TrEMBL record:
It comes from Aquibium pacificus. SUPFAM superfamilies: Thiamin pyrophosphokinase, catalytic domain, Thiamin pyrophosphokinase, substrate-binding domain. Gene3D superfamilies: Thiamin pyrophosphokinase, catalytic domain. Keywords: ATP-binding, Kinase, Nucleotide-binding, Transferase. Its EC number is 2.7.6.2. CDD domains: TPK (cd07995). This is Thiamine diphosphokinase.
Length: 216
């Protein structure tokens, strides 16, 4: 598997879990996401964007990173361009680091919907701020290796059909979730978290504790 980490402009806290995700991965920075490179101890192989958001960021430590510069008026965000560049370089899995928070709520929302679109195209995606982690929930059965007590929500981006959740404080069995329902918010892991979905688009959002999750 060829994993690329995309450094985005949102919030990011370095944790052992994030370090594990970075291990062996290739890195591309999207515009102001370059500011995370020094804190994470990584050197991106590419820095991409319109460079309208770097502001007071000290760019000197990254002067040797190759750049792809785009005009401010374009049809894609810097993060989307960075993900496309990773896929063109052979990425089979993506970690969107700095996907949450930041100055633009619309960008954070786009990162979540883009992750679902990429997952539907067969590319595993993890979104992370270090403290929070998101993973698309695809139709079928998925397992997530989180420790007991981990808080999680299932965010529905459409009506959900045939949703079952086990290994949770509040399990569900083959339920229908209306778009906009809060039924799948604020749950807790109890054992092995398993999610089955017959139809719909959703994202698991968790606050992980110790080790990396696996989905399958």
């Amino acid at each position: 598997m060829c994993t690329f980490v995309i450094l985005l402009g949102g919030d990011l806290v370095r944790t052992p879990r994030l370090d594990a995700a970075l291990s062996g991965a290739r890195v591309i920075a999207a515009d102001s996401g370059i500011r995370h490179a020094t804190a994470l101890g990584v050197t991106p192989e590419l820095w991409i964007g319109d460079f309208d958001s770097i502001g007071e960021i000290d760019v000197e430590p990254h002067a040797d990173v190759p750049r792809e510069v785009y005009p401010e008026e374009k049809d894609s965000t810097d993060g989307e361009l960075a993900a496309e560049a990773a896929l063109a370089r052979g990425a089979t899995a993506l970690v969107l680091a700095g996907a949450f928070g930041g100055p633009r709520a619309d960008h954070a929302f786009l990162h979540m919907t883009a992750a679902i679109r990429l997952a539907e195209g067969g590319k595993p995606v993890v979104l992370t701020s270090g403290l929070e982690e998101g993973m698309p929930v695809m139709p079928g059965r998925s397992e997530f290796d989180y420790t007991d007590g981990t808080l999680f929500s299932i965010l529905a981006f459409s009506p959900l059909s045939g949703l079952s959740v086990s290994g949770a404080k509040w399990p569900l069995e083959n339920v229908e979730i209306a778009f906009g329902s809060s039924l799948t918010m604020s749950n807790e892991v109890r054992g092995k978290l398993r999610i089955t979905l017959r139809e719909g688009r959703a994202l698991l959002l968790a606050r992980p504790e110790t080790h990396l999750p696996s989905a399958g």
